[in-house]
């Protein structure tokens, strides 16, 4: 634990300790791993009464021996094929299937019919004592519990969408057929796409402000406070948490920053029922530019044509209020922000300039942006170097600066900027 963190914790001792908030973790959320990672649960034919050991795709070799083990299976319809697969979970099990949980499947591939899945949650190779099977209905997904814990590890399964990921499916088929040994691979088209549902969150409302805090079971063992492994994240809502601002759990605690506030997570219930935290709005922040701090100097590339750019200094706007907006045109928050953003650019006598620094858009798109939206907005490109200087934690982010380019607010939306400017006008009129 670094000295600055210890010092900040010290600031909070005393009267502020009475402001502890207990937040129930009532929902499952998603992060970048859920939306961007492609994982397949390869299905093999289940014949007789035996299953083969898990196939570790990353370390398996063509000549590796296949080991078989007898299981007790439920009664399955003779009208459908049968299969088995494994789900990774860091739950202690025997050497035969270390860190894996067995799934038996009735009808792994005919998507016009229901698929039934039995999960060996107690790892005793008896699939008759783990409760009723889960069902994947035609063209649907299903979420299954990998363990017996009420808030434990979950995964979402669906029939692998081969038509959507043809190249991936072809590569996976080729690799597994080479590595299957004496197993009989059912093919990627008869396997599952798997996504981990290992994020629990709760939503907190304080006045007009709402935010969500989550804990992530990073090692997929069904608990949420593993030291140095599990993670904590914060977002405006629970739709999707950004791993860029995640913090590893240390001794049951974590430290986060969001919207100019420090959040001290002081207790995480290991079973995932709740967390306890304190929020401080007056603490000096480590990961966000602080109010009153001078904006770091940097240069950015300004598009001047389809493939032309010109280097600009951010200091060129010194002497006027500045709203700096780092964005991507596919970001959900940008779509919500755009109307208010363009409105600021049309405020001719508001005494404020707007600079938008973009990721990924073409030079021609940015060059024509202001004319298309009839607003005076200066465009440029962001970069990892610039984002690091600005301590960007999410995209988009808005930063409001005074005439001396000192931070007024390091996390402010365009609509909040409009409220700020209107308040200034009203106070001058009084």
In short:
This protein is α+β, with helices and mostly antiparallel strands and 430 residues long. The chain has helices spanning 3-11, 32-36, 166-179, 332-345, 363-367, 369-373, 384-390, 414-429; strands at residues 21-24, 27-28, 40-41, 44-45, 50-52, 68-70, 82-88, 100-106, 115-119, 134-136, 142-145, 154-159, 192-197, 199-206, 209-216, 231-235, 247-248, 254-258, 261-268, 274-280, 299-303, 309-313, 321-327, 352-358, 378-381, 397-401, 407-409. It starts with a helix and ends with a helix.
What global shape is seen?
Answer: elongated
Mean pLDDT figure: 89
Terminal residue distance: 50 Å
How are strands sequenced across the largest beta sheet? 2-14-15-16-17
Extended strand count: 27
> Roughly how many Å is the radius of gyration?
27 Å
Biggest sheet descriptor:
5 strands, antiparallel
Spans with pLDDT under 50 lasting ≥5 residues? Answer: 1-18
Fraction in beta strands: 25-35%
Describe this structure as you would to a colleague.
The chain contains eight helices and 27 strands. With 430 residues, it is α+β, with helices and mostly antiparallel strands. Mean pLDDT is 89; it is low at 1-18. The strands form seven sheets. A five-stranded antiparallel β-sheet has the order 2-14-15-16-17, with no helix packed on it. Strands 4-7-8-9-10 form a five-stranded antiparallel β-sheet, with no helix packed on it. 17% of the residues lie in helices and 31% in strands. Strand 18 and strand 19 (261-268) form a beta hairpin.
């Amino acid at each position: 634990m670094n000295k600055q963190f210890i010092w900040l914790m010290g600031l909070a001792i005393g009267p502020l300790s009475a402001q502890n908030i207990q937040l129930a973790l009532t929902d499952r959320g998603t992060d970048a791993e859920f939306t961007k990672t492609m994982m397949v649960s390869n299905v093999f034919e289940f014949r007789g009464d035996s299953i083969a050991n898990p196939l570790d795709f990353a370390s398996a070799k063509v000549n590796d021996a296949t080991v078989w083990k007898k299981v007790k299976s439920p009664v399955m319809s003779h009208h459908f094929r049968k299969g088995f697969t494994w789900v990774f979970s860091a739950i202690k099990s025997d050497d035969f299937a270390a860190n894996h949980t067995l799934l038996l499947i009735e009808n792994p591939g005919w998507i016009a019919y229901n698929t039934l899945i039995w999960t060996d949650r107690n790892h005793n190779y008896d699939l008759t004592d783990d409760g009723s099977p889960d069902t994947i209905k035609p063209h649907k997904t299903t979420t299954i519990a990998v363990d017996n814990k009420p808030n434990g590890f979950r995964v979402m399964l669906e029939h692998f969408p081969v038509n959507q990921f043809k190249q991936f499916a072809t590569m996976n088929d080729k690799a597994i057929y080479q590595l299957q040994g004496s197993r009989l691979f059912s093919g990627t088209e008869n396997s599952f796409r798997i996504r981990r549902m290992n994020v629990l969150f709760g939503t907190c409302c304080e006045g007009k402000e709402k935010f969500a805090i989550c804990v992530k079971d990073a090692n997929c063992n069904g608990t949420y406070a593993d030291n140095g492994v599990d993670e904590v994240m914060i977002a405006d809502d629970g739709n999707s948490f950004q791993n860029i601002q995640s913090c590893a759990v240390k001794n049951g605690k974590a430290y986060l920053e969001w919207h100019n506030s420090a959040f001290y997570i002081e207790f995480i219930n290991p079973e995932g029922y709740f967390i306890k935290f304190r929020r401080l709005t007056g603490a000096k922040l480590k990961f966000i530019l602080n109010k009153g701090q001078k904006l770091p100097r940097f240069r950015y590339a300004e598009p001047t044509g389809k493939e032309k750019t010109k280097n600009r200094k951010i200091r060129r706007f010194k002497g006027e209020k500045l709203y700096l907006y780092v964005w991507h045109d596919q970001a959900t928050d940008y779509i919500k922000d755009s109307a208010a953003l363009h409105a600021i650019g049309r405020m001719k006598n508001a005494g404020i300039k707007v600079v938008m620094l973009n990721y990924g858009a073409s030079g021609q798109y940015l060059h024509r942006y202001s004319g298309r939206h009839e607003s005076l907005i200066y465009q440029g490109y962001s970069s990892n170097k610039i984002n690091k200087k600005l301590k960007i934690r999410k995209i988009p982010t808005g930063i409001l600066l005074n005439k001396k380019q000192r931070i007024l607010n390091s996390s402010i939306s365009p609509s909040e900027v409009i409220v700020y400017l209107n308040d200034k006008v009203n106070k001058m009129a009084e």
